[in-house]
Amino acid sequence: xxxxxxxDDRSMLLQRHPSNPILTAHDWLHTVNAVxxxxxxxxxxxxxxxxxxxxxxxxxxxxxxxxxxxxxDNWVLDSEPTFPSDPVNHPDEIWGVEDARIVWxxxxxxxxxxxxxxxxxxxxxxxxxxxxxxxxxxxxxxxPPENKDAALLPFRFDGKWLxxxxxxxxxxxxxxxxxxxxxxxxxxxxxxxxxxRGAWWDANRIGIGSPLIRTNRGWLMLYHANRQTGAGCLYxxxxxxxxxxHPDRCLxxxxxxxxxxxxxxxxxxxxxxxxFTCGHTIGDDGDEINVYYGGADTCIALAQGRISAxxxxxxxxxxxxxxPEAVS
Length: 328
Ligand code: BMA
Prior knowledge:
Strand content: over 45%
Oligomer: single chain
Number of domains: 1
CATH topology: Tachylectin-2, Chain A
Mean pLDDT: 94
Bound molecules: beta-D-mannopyranose
Shape: globular
Number of strands: 22
Low-confidence stretches: 1-10, 324-328
Order of helices and strands: HEEEEEEEEEEEEEEEEEEEHEEEH
Structural class: mainly beta
CATH class: Mainly Beta
Largest sheet: 5 strands, antiparallel
Distance between the termini: 18 Å
Radius of gyration: 18 Å
C-alpha cells in the first residue's frame, strides 16, 4: 500500500542550503551564459572541488574547477577552463563537454571522470583520468551516441570495471551496467532500471545522478527522471538501492521523488523546472551527504541530508521493485 509522506518529511531528506544558489554565472570573471550540473569530490585535504559545466554564449560547454574549504562559499575558480573541449584531437567533443561525474579509483590512484562528449552524431559517454585536476588523460568515447549519464564504480568486480550508463531511445531511456577488463573495451551490458511509464514522475527518461554510494545495505543510487508534460519536461531526483555484489539488481526504488523543482532558481532559467545532480560529497561521519545540483540549467545549488535517512526511507517507500520485468 502507498505510504503517505508529508511535504515536510520529504523535504527533510534533502534540505536546500539557505545560500542557494551557491554558484552562478556572475561568479565568473568573464561573460558566460550558465553554470550548472557539477561533478563533485572531496580532495584529501578536505577541500571540495566542483567540476562545473560552464556554458558559453555560443552554447558550448567546458568543465571548470571551483574549490572551497567548506563546500558552500568562498569558491576559488581556475583562471581558465580546467577541462575544455578539445575538438582538434577529439572531434567527438566538437560541441562541448558536459556533466562530469567523478569517482576515485584506488587501484589506479586516479580520479575517473565520465562526461558527455557532444559530437556531431549526438551526445556520447567519454572517460578521462586525472590525479590532480590539472593534467588529464583522455581515454576517448566509451559509449557512442546517444548515451549520457555515466559513472564508474570505484573498484573491479571479479576483475572487471563496471560503468552505469544511459543509452537513449527516443523519449525513453533506461539505466544499464556495462563491464570492461581494461577501462577501454566495454560490453556485457545488463539492464538495471527502466522508466516506470504512465503517470509516474519517472515515466520517461531516467539516468544516474551522482556516482553510486556504497553502504552496508547496498549501493545507494540518486537518479534523475524526466516526465514529459503539456508544458515541457520536469526533471526530478529520486533514490534507489542496488545489490552490493550484483549492482545490476535493483533492491529498492523510492516511489516518490526526493527533490523536485520548487524554488525560483530551479523553476526559472534556460531550461525551467530542472533539478539535476552529477555529484555529491560525504562528510567526515560517513553519513552527511552534500548533493550539488544544477537549477534550471542555469545555476549550482546544494541540498544536504543523511545517507542513513534516505536508506531508512527506502525501506518504507519502495512498493515497486525496480526490476525491469516488474515495472511495466
Ligand atoms: C539532460 C542533460 C542535462 C540537463 C537536462 C535538462 O538531458 O542534458 O545536462 O541538465 O537534460 O535540460
